Amino acid sequence: MRTIDLSPLYRSFIGSDHLASLVDAASRAEKQSSYPPYNIELLAEDKYRITMAIAGFSKDDINIVVEDNTLVINSNKTVDAKDAQERKFLHKGISERNFERKFQLGDHVKVLTADLENGLLHVDLERVIPEAKKPRKIEIGSRLFDNE
């Protein structure tokens, strides 16, 4: 297991303790399996799309949840035991196993839509920065608060 010493960051970045938790989450994400395959696209400056290949799954088999800046996509497909016994494969290359895939979202990234079409799940995201967080120019000699 790799360990990363983040102590130099603490000297020059305020709030870098949050960075340490992101690095930890990223290292845990590396341990995930490669199933199902996915793409992450940049559609515009602040718009993204995650596309997952989930052939054989219906929209009822998929759960999409966002909690604490983590997008979790998982399946809960149940295979009918009777159907599984009747089917005999000469070659089985299409996986029907359940999965869980986690994506760490940046601050202010929101999930807009999720669509399932032709075996591909598309999840569209957008970063929406609130006005209070956008850069603003401060004039020298100006007062930011009226109550001073």
Automatic annotation (TrEMBL):
InterPro entries: A-crystallin/Hsp20_dom, ACD_IbpA/B, HSP20-like_chaperone. This is Molecular chaperone IbpA. Pfam families: HSP20. It comes from Marisediminitalea aggregata. Residues 29-143 form the SHSP domain. Belongs to the small heat shock protein (HSP20) family. Keywords: Stress response.
